[in-house]
Design a protein that fits this description.
- By secondary structure, this protein is of the alpha/beta class.
- The chain has one domain: Alpha-Beta Complex (Lambda Exonuclease, Chain A).
- It contains 7 helices and 7 strands; from the N terminus they run βαααββββαββααα.
- Strands 1, 2, 3, 4, 5, 6 and 7 form a 7-stranded mixed beta sheet that branches.
- A hairpin with a 6-residue loop joins strand 4 and strand 5.
- It is elongated.
Length: 227
Amino acid sequence: MERYNEEDFLLISGIQHYTFCKRQWALIHIEQQWKENLRTVEGKLLHKNAHDKYSSEKRGDLIISRGMAIHSNELGISGECDVVEFQRDENGVELFGREGRYKVFPVEYKRGIPKENDMDILQLTAQAICLEEMLCCQIDSGYIYYGETKHRITVNFDDEIRKKVADVFNEMRQMYERRHTPKVKRTKSCNACSLKDICLPVLCKNKSVKKYIEKHINEEASNEETS
């Protein structure tokens, strides 16, 4: 598998943007455009509470790490974990400066409720893949905490979801290298997007320039014939 240099890394968080809307991802990660709305502000506050800065604490056999920087050279991605839990377990891995062995569980915080699609699961799986590469271990599961339900769900990292993560990041990289911002069809989700005024999805429904010109030429010719 190809290994990427750090300057070529894509952001892990981008996989959620890309899965939600490829155009939104391109506007943010290729064109560097961003605009806040209520949803993004609430999401930032939730993440701020999860990790105001990198820190760790120990609670009995559990170590909780917040704001941990992660990366994968094989996938060419980097980012930050909201929380990583290290549960003491004789079948786990050794941690520098800590006694014993620990199993690793990434935890992602989200503001709303569990989604019908797998965008949150893809993001968490990508974090797990990074942690596996960095810590030389196998991670079977992790958690997503939803702020609206105040409950967290368990996510199992099977071969199918791991392959999908790799495939999606491959698509993202191809689009990034071409610096391509795609058009999209307007959906109900556009109304909740913080970039709707920048994106102007209605314009994506317009005909091509060629058809636009042909239409107006035909209209002018028709007007001349009737005048």
